[in-house]
Prior knowledge:
80% of the residues lie in helices and 0% in strands. With 90 residues, it is an all-alpha fold.
Amino acid sequence: MDISIDPNTTGLPGIEQLRTIVGAGMTIGLILSVLALIVSAVVWGFGSNSANPHLAGRGKVGVVVACGAAIICGASVTLINFFWDVGQAV
């Protein structure tokens, strides 16, 4: 006996609104990542120009974290689809 269950996109009311909310959340995440990148780059610049290694280090970490957050926000749908396909192959 083979059991096959696929996601049902019409089974619950509000699925389209939920997709809209998730898309808006992704947009907000990307916008905040860009803002964090700009602020971190400014902090890094101030730290470097004022000979403050602690401030420059914090700015560098902020740049890396902002770029990582943008990568995760941008690639979230692809990552979920990849792992969904891996799970279906098990």
